[in-house]
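About this split. The held-out portion is used to measure sequence recovery: a designer receives only the structure tokens and must propose an amino acid at every position. Recovery is the fraction of positions where the proposal matches the reference. Here is one held-out target exactly as it appears in the evaluation file.
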């Protein structure tokens, strides 16, 4: 039997061992990083369960506040003012930040518990007392000052919110009256189908400082409400960085930039797949070969051309009606729209066979040409003018361009037939290639359908990406139409 003295000795040894293990474990899972105005970006690989202590150094005497930001590649982390997470002192996300006031906080804590190794870009932006404080009048997020941009996406839209800023610290008393503050919205597209950490972090650096944002970002105007909730057209698979700069009377400040690929990306090797089901891939392949056939021989097979004209018009109308009044699944919508399209094509072919008058098919085919012309114009930055955010004005203007085709071509059925086959066939090929090669010209028509069925899309910032793949295919499309 052990004596009380021996038991006490063993108990002390065990307690010391546990204390040593605890300290050792803490040291092994904690890293320290110092950000300065001269070295204001640091890239880290953070293991799950690791805490990173981020401190700020070398601040000038006129620094009133600074923003520490954390941007994560394919994951999320937590930033906190304290080691212990308590309500109101931390935030979690992929693009987040905290405000540090120069006379109080000197460090923040980053934690990640995703279970995987994450790549994190840490950044520091410093401001003097003349700069407004981004997110200091936050009323929606759980943290008291939220200098970041909460972001979400749907099939049609990318939605970005920014908590309201406060007046500069040199204004006494502090106020949240937003009348003298102005918010400028900028975005920058990443290369198409480029989902890589290097590209993302490189461009985030360019879109963090408010002066750099004005150089590398493209400013866009938003005319929706509320003013602190911005809607963008979603171009699935094309990454973008969005920044908001708040301007005061004498100085400016930038929110932490946010990013979106318009879809859920699990890894850099698995980008967003638009044709996800076997049926959609079969449908896309059929559309590609039908397009090639129409380009080469469509005008020689008038009956096939009539069927395809009826097929396209029926598909467009059925798609708009279907999604305007209901929200079917992707598979159900594909089957219904395809079925209605086949029925519409057969109906138009039957009407022509019964009466033997080609005027109606040619007229409808010219409407398709006008529809594509109007859609191309609506795909330009012109659609972001404030006057075209009104539905009545937009659809009247769109209808005028749609009628261009019948007005100019219906009296010349031979040339109309050539134009119908070439333009429709070329767009079928272009649309299908977009799914596999990767560009955004497919949204020439998709954005019009979105505008027709989604009331929120009316105020969305369309401003489409027009990058090298899209430019190459667009010029190829124009050459194919011109050659035939």
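Reference sequence for scoring:
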């Amino acid at each position: 039997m052990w004596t009380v003295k021996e038991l006490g000795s063993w108990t002390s040894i065990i307690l010391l061992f546990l204390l040593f293990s605890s300290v050792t474990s803490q040291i092994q899972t904690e890293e320290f990083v110092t950000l300065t105005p001269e070295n204001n970006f640091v890239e880290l690989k953070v293991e799950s369960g690791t805490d990173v202590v981020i401190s700020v150094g070398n601040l000038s005497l006129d620094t009133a506040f600074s923003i520490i930001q954390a941007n994560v590649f394919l994951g999320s982390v937590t930033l906190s003012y304290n080691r212990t997470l308590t309500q109101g002192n931390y935030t979690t996300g992929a693009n987040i930040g905290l405000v540090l006031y120069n006379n109080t906080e000197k460090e923040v804590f980053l934690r990640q518990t995703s279970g995987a190794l994450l790549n994190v870009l840490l950044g520091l932006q410093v401001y003097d007392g003349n700069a407004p404080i981004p997110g200091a009048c936050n009323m929606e997020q759980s943290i008291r000052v939220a200098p970041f941009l909460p972001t979400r996406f749907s099939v049609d839209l990318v939605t970005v919110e920014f908590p309201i800023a406060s007046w500069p610290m040199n204004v006494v008393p502090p106020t949240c009256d937003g009348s003298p503050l102005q918010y400028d919205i900028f975005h920058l597209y990443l290369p198409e189908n480029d989902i890589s950490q290097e590209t993302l972090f490189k461009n985030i650096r360019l879109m963090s400082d408010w002066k750099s944002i004005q150089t590398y970002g493209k400013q866009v105007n938003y005319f929706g409400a509320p003013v602190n909730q911005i809607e963008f057209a979603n171009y699935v698979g094309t990454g973008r960085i969005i920044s908001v700069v708040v301007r005061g009377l004498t100085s400016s400040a930038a929110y932490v930039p946010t990013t979106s690929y318009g879809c859920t990306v699990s890894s850099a090797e698995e980008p967003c797949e638009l044709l996800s089901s076997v049926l959609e891939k079969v449908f896309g392949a059929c559309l590609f070969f039908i397009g090639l056939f129409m380009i080469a021989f469509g005008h020689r097979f008038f009956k096939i051309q009539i069927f395809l004209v009826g097929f396209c018009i029926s598909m467009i109308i059925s798609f708009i009606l279907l999604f305007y009044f209901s929200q079917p699944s992707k598979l159900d919508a594909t089957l219904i729209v395809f079925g209605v399209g086949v029925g519409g094509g057969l109906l138009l072919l039957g009407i022509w066979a019964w009466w033997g008058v080609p005027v109606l098919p040619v007229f409808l085919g010219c409407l398709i040409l006008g529809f594509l012309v109007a859609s191309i114009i609506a795909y330009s930055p012109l659609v972001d003018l404030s006057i075209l955010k009104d539905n009545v004005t937009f659809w009247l203007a769109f209808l005028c361009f749609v009628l261009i085709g019948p007005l100019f071509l219906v009296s010349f059925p031979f040339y109309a037939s050539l134009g119908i086959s070439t333009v429709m066939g070329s767009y079928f090929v272009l649309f299908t290639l977009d799914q596999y090669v990767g560009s955004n010209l497919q949204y020439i028509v998709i954005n019009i359908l979105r505008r027709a069925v989604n009331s929120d899309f009316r105020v969305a910032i369309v401003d489409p990406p027009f990058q090298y793949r899209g430019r190459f295919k667009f010029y190829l499309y124009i050459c194919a139409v011109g050659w035939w």
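Annotator remark: Confidence is low (pLDDT under 50) at residues 16-28.
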